[in-house]
Structure formats: structure tokens, C-alpha cells
Amino acid sequence: MTLEEKILKGHKRQVWLANILAKVGYNTPIGKLLRLWVYYADGIVILRHWRDFLSIRQKNIGDQYLAVDQAIMHSSYSQVRELMHGEPQIRGNDLGIIRILAPSYLLNNPLSLGTNGEEHTGVRALFIQALPNPLEVCDFLGALVNECLMVAVQKGELHVGNDLPAMMIQILHQVVFDITLTDEEVEASRKFIKSLPLASLPNFISEKVIFPLTAPIIKHRQKLIQKYQRSPKWFSYLETGFSHGLNEHQIANSLFDMIHIAGTAGTSALLGSVIGVLCLDNGLRSNVIAEIDRVWDGNDPLQSVNIAQLTLVYQVILETARLYPPVRFVSQLAPDRGEINLGTSKCPFQKGTRLLGSIFTANRDPRKYDNPDDFDITRDLSDILSWNGSGHERACPGRDLSIGIIQIFCLYLFKKYRWDSITEVKWDFEKVTAVTPNNLVLQGFSCK
Length: 448
Ligand code: HEM
Hints:
single chain, alpha+beta, three-stranded antiparallel β-sheet, 16 helices, 56% helix, 10% strand, globular, binds protoporphyrin IX containing FE
């Protein structure tokens, strides 16, 4: 069977199941079991062929189709935007297409993405307090970035897939908690992030069957959360959290997830892609270096005005986020049952069905962007979806900080450092790892 046949056969199975679920119930034990079966069946294909999976279903079925656990995938720009901006949204404990089926992996605290109502308002208040405006702390961020790059100098290389997540873990812990992690803690945090798909296995498997794999990771989370409570900023977070009815466990765990899942994974992937884009395009890199030289002499303390003048770098970051969005899917739940159009036929769906938005395909929708697969910094990117749109309660609270960190990273990288050669710049569009050139290495990395 070809890959295309397999992907389309999987969709026929989804349609068949939709009609069965209408009879046996969506959330009954049998309904849940059947959904789990299609979730893993589609999941195995997505793990190895995520981009083909999306494009084959979209081309053959339409902008909306069923996927994973009977979710309705929305793939066009206009559909995804509408989905993102709808308020209020009902959320389940899902991370894009990944369903968190082993809450023990997250110490039984839901992701902020999976909270609703006052609980969600509370964790958002915490995030807004924890994430500074990068323009107000740019010199501090610059010192942190520089410290990380000096570590790469000692190693003589900067490895995108290994070093950037480690740097981001360290930077975000400094920014949010004013604490430094040991090398062992950073490594354990990286393992936590890399092993996140394990949280999608049923709880008893995570807790009992693959215990040797998950136990050290969970233990690290417990220990790090205790360390947070010794941070000089801890009491101010408690104050905010308590005022919204959150307890200490919720406060510490939500901040842990903010740093590790949303902050580190997203920002290091985007930073890696920006470095990849600039390594590949000599002309663009020269223009970026010229802009950096214009705005900062490399000696004076960094000021907000230096960052505000990095307009080309800003546009490069946005266009890179469009082509290589670090977060590829957003997820919410249908408030009511209904019917979806699948080409010429209709198919029932139930209340609570997941509504997925595919940011990757929305960002490359030819009805929104001309020549969507081309890198073009002249585009109007004011309504880009990569940070979950803007101006609504579920938009990414780390947008400005992540862009600011990447701008500052570019400033330091090109102003103060050099490298002799690079390895191949390649984005993996098959294995469902982060969309970033993970294997890119800047070799012979040293100070200028
Ligand atoms: C400093 C770095 C970052 C931090 C601290 C951060 C933090 C967060 C947090 C806490 C949420 C959950 C908000 C909620 O539950 O209401 C979130 C959502 C989101 N973030 Fe970020 N983020 C960062 C960087 C990024 C980057 C670089 C991207 C992509 C370019 C991104 C894209 C998104 C998206 C798409 C969502 C919505 C997910 C959903 O609703 O399912 N974030 N971010």
C-alpha cells in the first residue's frame, strides 16, 4: 500500500467511526476506546510523515477532515484564524495534536492550555507577571545570551538541536525565577522536553510499564519545582496565584510548563530556524549584519532603542515563524454536536470533539500568501498566526519576549562571534520533531 493509500484509508476509518460514535456515544467507555484506537493509528503515520499526512488529507478531502482521535482538522488560513479568535474557548488537556493521557508525567497538573474559566485567568495572570517586556530588560537578556554563547566558545561549536534548548532553559529560569540551573538540571530538563510524547501514553503505561524511563524525568520535575520555591520571586507569584484561587502546586507546575514546553521548545526551535535561514542566504545575512552594525557598536549597554531599530531582523523572525512554525497545531473542544462537510458528504460529530487548527498549512495557504513556500521578507505579516494570532485570551503570552530574545541572540551572534564552517542546513518535514534544522552545527565557534 502506498503512503497516500494508507493515509486515505485511515480517513475512511475515521468516517466509519464517526457514525458508530453517534450511536454508542462519544464519551462512553466503548466510545473512548474506539477513539484511542484511531488516535494511535493516525498518530503512528503522523510521527513519521506529518507533512504528507496533512497535505494528502487536505488535497483529497478538503480544508476540513478528521484526524487523530476523531478531531476535526482545520487547515486553511481563514479557518484557523477564526478558530483561534473564537471566545470563549473550551479546552481539554491537549498539546496541539498530542493528548495528555498520562497526567502523572506532569505531576497531575493540567497544562495551562487545558484549563478553562477562572483557573485559566489565574495562570494567565501569572504568565503576564513572569514574562518581562524584553525592551525593558534588554541589557540583562544580552548578558545572559552572551554567557551562553561563551559556553559554546569553550566547546568550539554551536549545535542547534542540542545547545539552543539548553541555553533557553537557562535563560528563562534566570528571567522568571532569578535562579541558575546546574548542568545536570539543564540536561534533565532537556530530557523532560524531548520525552513529552510519553505523556500521550495511557497513565498506567507511563507509571508502571515504562517506569524506568519516566521516573527519573518526573523526579527531576519534582525537584526543580522545590527549587522554584526558594526563588526570590516565589512569594510574588504566590500572591498573584492565591488571589486567583490557585494553590502552590498549580502555581509552580504552570510556571514549569511555561518555561519548558511553551518557552524553551518554541523559542529554541524558532531561533534554530532563524540561524538556518541566515546561514543559507548570504545576501540576507550580509544585510542583517549591516543592520546590526548600524544599531549597536557592541560596547555600550544594550538599550531598547537598539532593539527597536532591528526592523530587518524582526521581519526575518516573523517570516521564519511563518514558514517554520514551532507550534504546528492548536486545539480546542466543540461546544455542541453537529455535522461537518467532507467534500460532497456529511459526517456527524459530537459535543466535546476536538477542533484542531493546523498552523503549518494555514501559514502556507496560497489564498493568503503569494508563493507561500518562498521566503519573502516583504510580506505583510501583521496578522501572522504562528503565536496563536493576537488580541484574544488564548494568544501566546510569550510572543514579545521570544522575539526579543531572538533579536538579542542575533545581535550578539553576529557582532561578537565567528565560526569557520557550518554543517548541512536541513529541516525535517517527515519525523514529527520540532521544525528546526536540528543537526546544524556552527563549527570552529569562537569570539571575534
Ligand atoms: C519566551 C518564550 C515563550 C513563552 C514563555 C511562551 C509561553 C506560552 C504560554 C504560557 C502559552 C499558553 C497560554 C495559555 O494557556 O493561555 C503559550 C501559547 C502559545 N504559544 Fe507561546 N511562548 C513562547 C514562545 C513561543 C513561540 C516562539 C511560539 C511560536 C512562534 C509560540 C506559540 C504559541 C502558540 C501557537 C500558543 C497557543 C497554543 C494553544 O492555544 O494551543 N510561543 N505560549
